[in-house]
Queue: 3 jobs
Job 1
Amino acid sequence: MADETRTSRKTGRPPVGAAVLQEDVTAAIKDAVFDELARTGYGRLSIEAVAKRAGVGKTAVYRRWPDKQAMVVAVLSEVAIAAIDVPDTRSLRSDVRAYLVNAGAALEHPLASKIIPDLLAETARNSDLGIALMTSVRDPRREKAALLLRRAVERGELPAGHDLELNLDFLAGPLYWRLTVLRSPRDDSYFDRLTDKIVAAMTEAGS
């Protein structure tokens, strides 16, 4: 199993209690978290299984996170927030379509398609996990997506008084419902048709 070194900048000797966290070990652990979540689900996930899959000792995991929940939330939030892409195409319609294409690719990823439904079911039973995921994943993702709508306001494509929360629901909800809940196939024109409906709903008077 991989080991991690301890060093002192001044003496070159291992300082007591100070671990140098190797990036390759961290990456291996993160990959193992996703693999184990997809394989067993959150409820049966264990630090031991993650460490074994990553090829490290349990201590390497505990150096990074104090427990299973902290580990899962940290690893998921890093990837989930990075996956939200809000390129500035200078057009509300083009921005929305680019957002949907990117989000669709993330939701259809083989690991995500197994992990996301399981975590949603788990949060219904585990309120602490639910609160942690809302704070670390849901809220930052919505705030990042809100940039798309704020830019549309600045360009005059949306009124300043538009319903931001409702329009964020329009932006994410239909795609998530189709790909994650219904798991329905989509054709090549789906993103264009969905984009047109979402933009129409957002720009409707009073929305």
Job 2
Amino acid sequence: MPNPARLLPALLAIAASSALAEVSVQQLDDRVRVELDGKLFTELRYKDTPHVHYWPVIGPGGAKMTRSWPLDEVPDEEHDHIHHRSLWFAHGMVNGADYWSEAATSGGKPPKHPVGKIVHDKIVKAEGGKESGEIVSAQKWIAPDGSVALTSTQRLVVYSTPESERQFDFEVALTAGEKEVVFGETKEGTMGIRIAESMRVKRPRGHTPGVGQILSSEGLKNADAWGKPARWVAMSGPIGDKPYTIAMFDHPKNTSHPTRWHARDYGLFAANPFGGSTMEKTLPPGSGNVTLKPGQTLTLKYRFLIQQAEPDAAKLNERFAAFAK
């Protein structure tokens, strides 16, 4: 019979590895902070920004999963696409205005269309718990002329997870005001994340070659995954000496499911339900447009899974099936 004294350390180690982190949510003066077992996971940032966003996003082992710039200056980070603020929801064509780009640019061309802003209105709910924590916040989409084109409610649910992974859901309800709202087709959108620089498929000149990978649920990799419909897409690569994978799942009830993906080799990773013919040239122009009548609401749901592991398509399909239910 095994010696109980010898078994105890192993049992304690197993229990520790399988323990779930409690989620705490704290509303501060200018942000909402989410922690897992007392350690920062992310913050909803909404002050002095053209669009609300979540930064940083911390993965297993304390890894910073998203690019810091333009929120912070970190060595060896590219300063392209100033509007890629960690994790965010926006779109590049709403009633003719661009809510994806920013008026200020960094070494790039100015936006082709008038630029709007997605501004914070109020915190509806900020609550932690042993199984999950939740932030519900309201926004106003301010058109270039100062009018409110539509309103939105973002819901972030962060789940208690083992140390080896992080899982959270993002849901947004988009509601038209007194006038019709048209989400126009453009590749510039929509549920976006800008991953850590070390995970990129391609690195800038003068840097070591990129070793990251893009993988879709349809088995497409890297550039082949761009603009193609898929139930999920995963980006993977190293942070430090560890492999990491970030997967985003598109809910089956979302419009245009399976969505098209604005997934780029330089680190942008976005689900775009309004891409239409700008992402698939065989489609007729305008096929990606979605129109909301006055007062009508469109709801979109996504799940994010972060793992300290190489991507496993079979397991990601299982996790998608669980989300789909």
Job 3
Amino acid sequence: MGHVAGRVAVAAALLLATSYMLQSDDSRPFSAAPLPVAAAPLPPILTVQAGNGDREYFVSRREIVPLGRASISLPILMYHYIRKPPSIRTDMIGFKLSVSPEDFQVQMDWLYANHYHAVNFNQARAYFAGTAALPPRPVVITLDDGYQDLYSTAFPILKAHGFTAVAYVVSGFVDRPGYVSRGQVLEMDRAGIEIASHTVNHPDLARSALGSVTFEVVQSKRWLEDTVGHPVLDFAYPSGKFNAQTIQAVSRAGYSTAVTTSISSTVHSLADRFAWGRVRVGGGESLQEFITNLGPNMASTTISTLDVEPS
């Protein structure tokens, strides 16, 4: 029994040391909530015979962005169509909004190979609330309007990489030809794609009367929430256009964030959460341009955790 007690004491000491490591990396304690980062398991450091069976002690390590930052470097990538681009001569706008499936695949491959972690705005909210750290090299992948290729092309590529994304859906376009169906919206939601609002009819909110703006932001939110069965908290301004009246209407409707293309930035804080800038991925840019547009990475730290499991 003396040997067992000694081994348990060693394990306890390791646990205390691990706890100290967690506290020393940041002035605020880390959340115990699971992080969206795969831990790196190691062989058991100790096996102890006690009572009903052996116990094995494991040390796992994961890399995180520590809590406590007032602003974060978080590129929010903006996509529209994931399809073969149409002719620039006959459809200039469609050409500028289209990324080929091959380019999208290459970009997702690069993010995966270089250890970027796709997150959604629920995770950003948890970080700013101080309840969960972010994984290293976080990136938000957003797709606007709810075109059919969101479901048929982008969704399978995202799933193959284990990536989440944010789909800004125009609720009034759902079930129309060329757009996703209501059932597909629900399927993507259940598979981990965050469903967010992009108005009912995709108008220019900066040029709309207050009553029209209120209808667009409130009704789209209600329709999407009825579809997925939980709160929809994030919004994208159509064509990135907004003003003070728009921000006020979005805030009153109960949204938590809103994104725009009128501002080019990868650094975000709670103070500017209704005007978070996005990185436009328009198709045709080189992979090096795509990489450069991601901006700088935040510093991360490695934490260690001691787990006890039956042998």
